[in-house]
Request: fold
Amino acid sequence: MKKKILIISGGISKERTISLDTGKQVAKELKKNGYSVKICEPDHELINKTKVFKPQVIFNALHGQFGEDGYIQSILEKIGIPYTHSGIISSAIAMDKEISKKIFLKNKILTPKYFVYSFDKSKKKLIDKIQKKLHFPVVIKPINEGSSVNVFICTKKNIINKLNILKNYKRILIEQFIPGREIQSAIIGKKKLGAIELKPKRKFYDYQAKYDSKAKTEHIIPIDLPKKQYEKLMDLTLKVHNLMGCRGVTRSDFKYHQKKFYLLEINTQPGMTKLSLVPEISAYNGINFISLIKLILKDASINK
Reply:
């Protein structure tokens, strides 16, 4: 008899729509292959619904805050049923871009230069600091968001306007802008899954470029890299996955410039929608959607 799988999707983050789509796609594929599936919101009914349904595995299809930052993971640990993707600590440190950066740098992994800005500081002094430490253009982004939510490339002329959009975050990351190619690579368990290059028609691979088919982002696979460079990329991807203590599937985002890979971030719960990259990378490498889901379920665990 096939396993009973509880899928948690939706939530209250800015990535709710993507999470609902991920949950829907995973549920559809599992049902098609004979699994007993229930989809549930991460609300106050979650624990009761879990007790009633009695799943063998919980598939965490949440994205963004409260879903991949260690919060829901702490609840799932108390429930005591194996759940997919990374655990509490790995999720928390991967989601926090400031902590992630410090780990990358400590382990000699190339990443764009940065500093953290608090909104109680002078904006005039900020511009001086950027010119001195990073130079324009720069990238500004929330410390704890995913899917390029509220990420902007800023010049000296528009940075104040863009900062005003992010003022509710209180603290943000200001990062050196690295030109070059957008390359993303994935790991499943301890296996190097593969990589893909993105050529967005927009200024960069932002939220719309990721999820709106009308944005017409070009997906290039296989990527055009010398064999040694490709192997270096995948070795680096696995190193980061292990370094952060991740399990299941992760996707790491890089900029490739002047034959160097700059790690931007690692995503512990990449999307599983029709436009998502990990299923596309998997399919190219001979792992169809249901096989990918099974691999993720196989790596489900608690207390890790």
In short: The mean pLDDT is 91.
